[in-house]
Amino acid sequence: MSNNQKSNIQRRDFLKFTGLSATAFILGIPSVKSGEPALISNLSNLEDAFNLNPYVLIEKTGKITLFNTKPEMGQGTFQSIPALIAEELELSPGQYTVQQTGGEKRFGPLQFSGGSYSVRSSYQELRKVGASAREMLLTAAARQWNVLESECYAQDAKIFHRTSGKSLGYGDLVETASKLEAPQNPRLKDPADFKMLGKSVQRADVPLKVSGRAVFGIDVEVPGMVYASVERCPVFGGALKGFDKKLTLKVAGVEQVVEVVREYGTYKSTGVAVVANNYWAALKGRKVLKVEWDLKGNEKFNSNDYAQQLRELAKTEGLVDHASGDFDKVYAETGQKLEALYETPFVSHSPLEAMNCTAHWKDEKTLEVWVSTQVPGDAMETLRGRYGLKEENVTIYTCFNGGGFGRRLALDFILEATDLAKTIKKPVKILWTREDDTQQGPFRPLTFSALKGALSSDGKLVAFQHKVISPTVSAFLEPERDKSKPDGTMTEGISSQAYEIPHLKNLFVLADVHFPLGYWRAVTSTTLAFAHECFIDELAHQAGKDPLQFRMDMLTKDSDTRRVLEKLREVSHWDTPLPKGRGRGIAQWDFFAGLAGHVVEVSKTSENAVKIDKVYVVIDLGTVVNPDNVKSQVEGAVVMGITAATKNGITFANGKVEQSNFHDNPILRMSEMPQVEVHILAEGGEKIKGVGEPGLPPVAPALANAIFAATGKRIRKLPFDPEAL
Amino acid sequence: MAKYTLSINGQKVQVEAEPDTPMLWVIRDYVGLKGTKFGCGMALCGACTIHLDGQPIRACQTPISSIKRKNEITTIEGISADIDHVVQRAWIEEQAPQCGYCQSGQIMSAVALLKAIPKPTDADIDTYMSGNLCRCGTYNRIRKAIHRAAAALQTESNK
Q: What is the number of domains present in chain B?
């Protein structure tokens, strides 16, 4: 019997056993159905392998594979998620390998990375998964030795017998263990005994990423594969009239030129794909392609007019998002008032790995996809539905994401590739250029904020109104949404603010837009926090109070926000005055992803310029899985926040995006980096908050407030140039 | 199409390609070394940084026709066989990468920096590294990793 045949038979055995053990079902996670070899076929040299549940696969050789449902895009889930299982299963780093899941049903509905949701949505469940597997192995060992289970313990991928000292590896026990019924309520470890959780464990993906070995979507090669580059209408809303491919087909390597549709929610646009036997040829062919577009009047769209339109909308009443007390009456009756309009831009995600996807139809009903995506679960469901395929006939290989930031929540670039591969009947990799990535969206929506505040005679904020004027992501993704109601995603964090203000009225005014908008790291909070927390600063100044104390005075009850600000006061040395010419600003934001507060220090370098010296961050978490990785995430969020506050943003002229690549849509550079000091509030317990996003929203307001403190210049519009204020 | 003989990471490779094909695509899609990354296609981001006779260059702006037989190309795969180059070790120690996509280019720039200036100041790092963009924002860790690698080199040379 050849090795191949042998492993095929055992593969069937494996599937049968997994069906029997069905731990996952008991844990509320779907079990493996037989005949779902999709992901397993991706494992190399699989021999005598048994599942203890869908997430834990142990081979008789002792090799252990843990399955990770949260795509790795730099946020550390390749370490933090399997570690939840490994901790309870008594594995050390290096004793297991990690396999990304590809949307298979048995791994449940939460196969995505987004919303700073990964760890907090998995913390208890995956610990149970690991503990359950540990108890099965323990039972198997005790039975084999004919000893009491209480005399046995698990450590470093082995079960030990306490008195005799004998041991068996997990590989020796897995076959027996896999036939046992999985414990429904396994005993979880005491956090005091954790070896990995809560510790700064090194990430297994790092060595791969410093040696060029990590496989991103762009790195995938399939035998017989061709490459494609797609010309899409440069003006959103335009339609393809026709194209002349004569010159393109003369380019050596170009094979064909065909139409392909890009779909982003309700936005559909037909582009022209140049297909070639190498990517450079596809690019050259695209350059000489002549395409005619019907722009349908969309070429009249430009950013200045749009901003003016939003300023007009700001004067309308809008929909009430939240009201408490009697804002109108109190505002009208109060002497000290302040009003301001804050403006922010559209921004691009710009992950360094541009969008790409490789699709291969093995036959008319069998599809394989290799892609850097945040949403393998959604991709699987969408592909099955779109083409009417059975689950076992769709395989998604989730690759390392070369950045996500929300861009890879979308499926547009995946469907474009699977459609094109179907049309040309060949495996194909579509790779977007940086220009495509910069100009085609989706973009983070901009928000304008109309704010009003009234101060009592003793300088207390008694009435406050935050009116958000903006287009919404949901216009594309949820067209059925009722527009007579405010869109909560566009007002997040405002009405739930911890500040105790007696009379509040928060409003929303919907603005239209005709091009794709998408969720972006920390989404709307990145712009709302700027307006909100800068205006609070304006009010503090008006009241003649210290900005931090002004906030504390509105936080009389114990709250996470109050504790963050207290810690921030301490770590940023807030009460120690800075020398003249320097200033510090503060901001905090609490929203769906979590809570953080920042203090930014700047120094004046000339009359109209400042340098950002240092950023202090306090992030509120409760329970932490990997403190060093939390710091890494927050450091990155600060950089992304400074980029969004101080670099161009996306603007339109004649219907086209004006920026195209990193020269005119820049991101922060090494030479522009301030120091960043991160503090984690982690008292443990049940509370567990998000990590990836909360470090972003307070950056722009804390920076703008620091600039006011240093220069007296109030910034109400993003982006701004710290060197030309 | 033309035939080229390249020396990449110490190995001779025969490639048949159009003369204007950038080395980025030659290295990735003809030679099959995927560690060198495409980021911008305009020498703006540094993700495709490789060494030409030890000097850092942007592979996306270097046509294959400009490479001579005697030139030695080094990619991220060529700096060590076992991920034990002093710069790689420092990167791991500082847990510098996040998504990791730009890091091949960052490391190739850092290796060249340390060759030119074995004990770089922060200003040297700013000068050498500011052409390498990182959207995840790992710059401060990269800076620390470079200082760490410089210190390790110092210790080694004192032995």
A: 2
